[in-house]
Give the backbone structure.
Amino acid sequence: MGSQLLYPVRRVYCVGRNYAEHAIEMGHDPDKEAPFFFQKNPDNLLIGSNAFPYPSRSNNVHHEIELIVALDKGGSNIALGEAMDCVYGYAVSLDMTRRDLQGEAKKAGRPWEVGKAFEHSAPCGDLVLKSDTGVLEQGEISLKVNGEERQKGDLNQLIWKVPEIISILSGLFTLAPGDLIMTGTPAGVGPVEKGDVLDGYIEGVGDLSITVT
Ligand code: MN
């Protein structure tokens, strides 16, 4: 925090439906699902600006407040017990989603990129180092829109915990320094409008304030 050091981002992985209440609100049974993943592009990150431009071709853009985990080590088939050694730090982020386009893609059995991996779709706050915060296993994660609480949960409600996510993901992909993982969103997702102010907060990590322009 407050440092000018840059962290070169390699890949941006995202976990789907990783809080029970959110899985339920999206019409799924949280008990039956293995974790699943999608990716955003590194240049979709919105860093150093608080202006999120409302994207094209959508009338239903949703906010999803998420904890980002940033890696400084990687590998394949990382054991559960070694997974936290890969974590460099944390950040507050938003997985902005063109829900209408994502819904069409889901229905047609098509990929999610048009719904998820568009320009500026991943507003991201300052990276805080695990060496300063310690391992974050609990704490508030919340989002206000225009001062009104819309999303609220606790990191201890993650269905798949951070070490499990890293271990499973590393069986599918070779993880490396610079990889970010967006760990999923608690319940309360909903649409944003131009002019809305989104105030995200994660206990131990900090704040992220974004205006929809
Ligand atoms: Mn998400």
Observations:
- The pocket of manganese (II) ion is lined by residues 14, 64, 66, 95, 184-185 (CB under 6 Å).
